[in-house]
Write a structure and sequence with these properties.
The protein has 133 residues and is mainly alpha-helical. 54% of the residues lie in helices and 11% in strands. The protein has a three-stranded antiparallel β-sheet with strand order 1-3-2. A hairpin with a 2-residue loop joins strand 2 and strand 3.
Length: 133
């Protein structure tokens, strides 16, 4: 633990405000956004929706996943206002509401390509629940 808070990957102190922001602080929203994006199924859905609107059946077919595996993820993305849902006949259809998310994911892919070794070997992340070295 550093003087200002816990130590980050580089051994630098993380200010307490960053480590434990209040419930409406933008950094907490950022952490929630990245938590939403941390799920591979939700990322796949966002990528699929970046190509245009899709029904749940389209998502199941195009992502080659069962409906039970996909079912809750569009609801999460809709609740977070990243996608919009609309009723088409008996089935719901989804489209991106925030197209900026595609730009963010493109930037993240470039960062991952440039720093893959460091990202995959971070000992701090490996020590977290579900983390892998």
């Amino acid at each position: 633990m550093g003087r200002d808070g816990p130590l980050g990957c580089a051994g630098l102190a993380i200010p307490a405000l960053i480590f434990n922001p209040g419930p409406c602080h933008p950094r907490r929203g950022g952490a929630q956004l990245f938590k939403v994006l941390a799920d591979p199924v939700r990322l796949a859905i966002i990528h699929e929706l970046s190509q245009g609107g899709r029904s749940v059946g389209d998502l199941v077919r195009n992502l080659d996943m069962g409906q039970t595996r996909i079912s809750n993820h569009p609801a999460c993305l809709r609740h977070c206002q990243l996608v919009r849902g609309r009723q088409e006949s008996r089935h719901g259809a989804y489209s991106l509401l925030q197209h900026e998310i595609v730009d963010l994911l493109g930037w993240a892919e470039r960062l991952i390509a440039a720093r893959a070794r460091e990202l995959m070997s971070c000992l701090v992340l490996a020590a977290e629940p579900g983390g892998k070295p």
